[in-house]
Write a structure and sequence with these properties.
198 residues, alpha+beta, six-stranded antiparallel barrel, 7 helices
């Protein structure tokens, strides 16, 4: 399937498991990668695996350390290092579902994606379709080692923006589902609701 102009290549998988994968890319581009963005990758046995970008890590190398302590680093040296990195920028992705036979499932796929598969951002239409149901919330909220609340809130803001005028009604529905899931943790619920408020 051809990518629409609004779907952008993030990079290629460098490591994967059933619940998370890491993507390597050589330079940051406008809007890619963005925390909370929905991304997709083809996988064996399913059409696409969907995930949320939860981390962007830029490892250093000896040259970066040298440039960092240089008092008058040349702008072209800095630009070259940012655009032609030898050590990839690592993007962490949390798996939140998959599509198979045209149907979206909000649970862990049967197999992880393969190394070096290409990852792309989802189009606005794909984001709207994936977030039509809220069953993936628990997959995000149960990851205590991630900034799960911030991640879900960022994703919901993107999903609301993709819906235009219907975005506010979408956030109300999302808030109701969060209230159901977090009824025993009102402090956490309040913190997330404050983050998704228009």
């Amino acid at each position: 399937m051809a990518e629409t102009p609004s779907a952008l290549k993030v990079g290629r998988i460098i490591r994967s498991s059933s619940t998370r994968f890491a993507v390597g890319c050589n330079a940051l581009k406008p809007q890619v990668p963005a925390f909370g963005s929905l991304v997709k990758v083809p996988a064996l046995g399913v059409d696409q695996i969907y995930g949320l970008i939860h981390d962007v890590r830029m490892e250093d190398d000896p040259f970066v350390r040298q440039v960092a302590i240089t008092e008058e680093a040349l702008p072209e040296v800095i630009a070259d290092q940012r655009q032609n990195r030898q050590i990839p920028i690592e993007v962490g992705v949390l798996v939140v579902g998959y599509r198979h036979g045209g149907e979206i499932h909000h649970h862990v796929p049967p197999q992880p994606p393969l190394s070096l598969d290409e990852i792309h951002t989802c189009t606005a239409e794909e984001l709207v379709a994936f977030t039509a149901r809220f069953d993936y919330f628990r997959l995000v909220l149960d990851n205590g080692d991630l900034p799960a609340d911030e991640l879900l809130a960022a994703n919901l803001r993107y999903a609301a923006a993709a819906r235009g005028r219907a975005g506010e009604d979408f956030l109300v529905g999302a808030g109701r589902e969060l209230a159901r899931l977090l009824a025993m943790d009102l402090y956490r619920l309040d913190a997330i609701l404050r983050r998704i408020r228009p």
